[in-house]
Amino acid sequence: MRWWQIKKRDADLERELRSDLELEEEEQREGGVSGEEARYAALRAFGNPTLIRDQTHAVWSWSWIESLARDLRFSLRTLRRTPGFTIIAILVMALGIGANVALFTVVRGVLLKPLPFHDPDRLVMLYEAGALGDDTTDTNVVSGGMYAEWKKENRSYSSLALAQDIRVGLSGSNGQLPEKLKSALFSWDMLRTLGVQPALGRDFTQADDSPTANGTVLLSWGLWKRRFGGDPAILNQTIELDAAPYTVIGVMPAWFDFPDPSTQLWTPVYHDKPEATMTSLNNHMFRVVGRLKPGVSAAQGVADLSLISQRTHNAHLDDPFVFRGASSRPLLEHLVGEIKKPLYVLLEATCCLLLIACLNVANLLVARAAARRKELAIRTALGGGWLRLMSERMMECLMLSAAGGVLGLLLAFATLHWLSQARHDMSRVDSIHIDGVVAAFTVGVIMLCALFSGLIAAFSNSDRHILGALHEASRSVGGGNARATLRKVLLMLEVGLTVILLVGAGLLLKSYERLRSADMGCITQGVITMHLGLPDARYATPAQRANFYDTLLERVRALPGVDAAGFATLVPGQGYEVDSTFNIVEHPPLPQGRGLYALSRSADPKYFGAMGIPILRGRTFDGKRLATANEVIISQSFASQYFPGEDSLGKHLHVHGQNAVIVGIVGDTRYAIGETPRPVQYFSLDAGVENVGTLVIRSSHDPEQFALPVQRIVSEMDRDLPVSDVLTMNQLLGKSTQDQSFNTTLLVAFGSLSLVLAAVGLFGVMSYIGAQRTTEIGIRIALGAQREQVMRKMLLDGMRPAVFGLVVGLTASLAAGRLMRDLLYQIKPLDPAVFAAVAATLLAVAVFACIVPAWRASRLDPMKALRAE
Amino acid sequence: MAKRAQQRVGLLQGTLDMLILRTLLHGPAHGHQIGKHIQRTTNEFLQMQHGSLYPALHRLEERGWVVSKWETAPDRNREFKYYRLTDKGRKQLLVEESQWKQMAEAVARVMWPVPEEA
To answer: Where does the record place the Transcription regulator PadR N-terminal domain (chain B) (predicted)?
Structure first.
């Protein structure tokens, strides 16, 4: 019977009853009973029609929907009767499901959803490769000259476009302060290559992308809203970038975040970059995106470009920095590469957590089923079908999972909201949404959980030895042995999974600590850093720039409380960024096309002192402006790598077409946290070639107090010059460990959660075992067993699965740790301290979870226990 | 599941089904007629409870032992819901009949034992 037919059937039944009742009435009348009397007599003979209808409905209700509804009502009643159990089970499910849904949403949004570009599978990120034969140069950024060669000669790509991240100063107007913004230079065909249109206005044209064209700019949606009030009249207005005029020609859609999420402006590259840069073969600075022609594979494309590179390399053997090959990665992989691995580790962790949650609910259900064994046995004896009992159990699990799922979805919602706030720097964070697919996934997870925990629970009491059960139950000798074993196995699995999670969390935590305490080779306490960039338009000559730095440093050092101040293009922790090739003049010449290379920075003479980078030998720059252009200071590892067993002081490096004498050797620093120090060459800032850099101020008092005074000095020197990234050294390093700290936080959260769940599991099961063995323990005590003995036995019983689980978990962690190797810094996946700490924590929790029920059991009053029977 | 539940519910219900099926052997009839027929035939010994008659009829229909149809009664100018025995119903009647016979004999043997032969 289908439910939608019931209404029709009901009308039919009513008609049937009415017609038969009327007949009865007629017959009564024919039998001589008069009017009203006949009616009542008929009704009497007939019985209550409503009751008949109800009873007939009962016949129809052998339909699945009604029987489900009945199971539902029954399980609701059962669950309501044991609110403690229900609440714990729902919370456990909510945590498991919530975490899973949240992470699935992230993984889907970031890794699985296609890029919002046209035909995104054909988009690749292109690199130069193979110049120096080490892994950092296999995916190197591309030089303008090589890009030009590729673009001209290749047959594999329907278009090649180029981009570079820069920072620009947006001048204030109408009382707004100037602002430093992350910006990108695009070749005019970048948006066409991606297959994206501006939301407002127009795309760049080839005419915009030339040095002689007027400046044009595309705004990001966010900047347009924030800075220009979302006014469409912004189109065709002029704004000032680095003190030069640019006309706003369009606004990009809100979701557009290429090349990275914090980009706020796009300008044409050939308009901004000098021609020399765009044709240079050894100045590598651009990201190149290619769109493969239909039918051309990524490998074919790379082979094509490599041929061009090799040819170009051979034609410029005098220049060691012309790369020999090309490589590519799918654009999606390039954008999410960093986040992929940690996401998968986290996803595994959440699956672990969900499994723990399911095991826990199953365990609680099994334990409760054991307590309800007598009831179930009686029902079976009265003819309660096995299937019926099983479907009730499943319904119960479904209710718990569904309630948990709904709560979990709310939890996931909150988590994702938090995540998108906390990790706005993460690639594609905007594509993370709870949508239909996620909702379907949630329903799937709920069903799976119900099925999993339900089946375990259902099979645990599927044995049909009714009499045996009744017999046994009447004597209260613990619920069947098989069931107790199942419970212990479940518990063991749960503990094992928890151990895996805890070990993972522990490893990450320790690795993070190592990372944060890694020696950067400089002072990190009491130092504040600020970013400055001098626009070419106003600081065209080296003398102008050097003059600006001099004046600025002089005024900053005069501020009360400043212990030292310095300026460098890049400070430790700000990344690899710039390197350059050199030859050592005193050494025999290298074969053609070969060169040495090292990181390259410019600094003022007092920078080393301000950052606490020790001068090991020689001296710092002598501070005579422009005279120091041919001096270089090298780092310790530079000396040991390129001058092994000889004195490097006084030797000459041939760099950028001129010779520089080595005047000093300084201590090693790390260009990023977690990286090993590499050779660095420092040139004098006084040469004035650099137009961007970082001001560092050291103070024994709170260094953050200098943020405002320095900004004031800068704006007094140049009203339109913004200061950006005002960060203490600790914040700066914190930024570069953000991924690790984020992953660690999450995994520690999962670990603690699972520990709580495992404790709940242990506690719950121990309590049930205790409750069930009340009589047995009563008898033991009555027969003279020592309470300590009882307690010890209970404790051992509970601890055994925990210890087994611990062993299993630790073993499995050895395998799981291998997965995490890439996420770890300076520790091995098998870290004895972490393993020991996890084991100790888990044992402590297990003892606590077991000792309370055991203690309760040992306090039993034997008389009371026996009388309860 | 259904079968087991039914065996359990008791003697009367099973019996009622059998009585209805037997009644319908004479030909199609509507609910009232069936009830009256059973009452009359047993000399009013079995007072027909409509509360169980209609559910029973619908149950038999669910199982495909009877089919129903609205038809105008020949003696009255009105439509009634007529039930008719199906082939499946006929077979079921045979089964129930033999079961009933066995049951009655078994009960009788206990209640009125035949004296053991010497």
So the answer is: 20-93
Nearest to A39 by CA among A29, A49, A30: A29
Residue A250 has pLDDT above 60, yes or no: yes
B13-108 domain in CATH 1.10.10.10? yes
Query: Bridge partners of A412?
Result: none
A36 shares its domain with A70 = no
A290 has a pLDDT exceeding 90: yes
* Spatial contact of A691 and A533, defined as CB atoms under 8 Å apart: yes
Q: Who contacts A602 (Cβ-Cβ below 8 Å, separation ≥6)? A: A568, A569, A682, A683, A684, A685, A687, A689, A690, A693
- Residue of B50, B52, B77 for testing the chain A interface, max A β-carbons within 10 Å: B50
Q: Provide mean pLDDT across the span A544-559.
A: 91
The amino acid sitting at A788 is E
CB contacts of A1 in chain B (<8 Å) are 62
Using an 8 Å Cβ cutoff, are A289 and A125 in contact? yes
Residue ranges in chain B modelled with pLDDT below 50: 1-11, 118
User: What are the CA-CA distances from residue B66 to residues A652, B93, B100 (Å)?
Assistant: 110, 11, 20
Q: Which DSSP symbol is given to B63?
A: T
Tell me, yes or no, whether A468 and A491 share the same domain.
Answer: no
The number of domains in chain A is 5
Q: Are residues A553 and A701 in the same domain?
A: yes
pLDDT in tens, A603-647: 988 999 999 999 999 999 876 655 556 889 999 999 999 999 889
| Domain extent at residue A572 | 539-717
Place of tokens 């010890």: A792
What value of ipTM does the predicted structure carry?
A: 0.79
**Residues A94 and A203 occupy one common structural domain:** no
Please judge whether A55 and B51 are an interchain contact, meaning their C-beta atoms are less than 8 angstroms apart: yes
Residues of A in contact with B81 (CB under 8 A): 12, 15-16, 19
In this structure, the answer to whether residues A567 and A643 fall within a common structural domain is yes
Instruction: Report the residue from A12, A23, A51 with minimal CB separation from B32.
Output: A23
Confidence of residue A162 (pLDDT cuts 50, 70, 90): very high
- DSSP-assigned letter for residue A213: S
pLDDT at site A280: 87
**Residue A130 counted as domain residue:** no
CA-based angle A19:A21:A23, to the nearest 5? 70
Final residue in a domain of this structure, among A322, A351, A371: A322
Asked if residues A96 and A404 have their Cβ atoms less than 8 Å apart, the reply is yes
Instruction: Say whether the peptide bond before residue A259 is cis (omega within 30 degrees of 0).
Output: yes
Burial per residue of A381-412, b for 16 or more beta-carbon CB atoms within 10 angstroms, e otherwise = eeebeeebbbbbbbbbbbbbbbbbbbbbbebb
What is the rounded (10 degree) CA torsion for A470, A472, A473, A475? 120
The separation between the first and the last C-alpha atoms of chain B, rounded to the nearest angstrom, is 47
Least confident stretch, A284-298, A423-437, A682-696: A423-437
Whether A810 is in a domain gets the answer yes
Q: Could you report the per-residue pLDDT of A491-520, keeping only the tens digit for each?
A: 888 888 888 888 888 887 888 778 777 788
A46: closest CA of chain B, how far (Å): 6
A21 in a structural domain:
yes
pLDDT band at A302 (very low <50, low <70, confident <90, very high): very high
Same domain, yes or no: A657 and A636: yes
Q: Is the pLDDT confidence value at A252 over 90?
A: yes
Residues A465 and A545 in one domain: no
- Domain boundaries in chain B? 13-108
**Residue A606 included in any domain:** yes
- In tens, the pLDDT along A539-549 reads 888 888 888 99
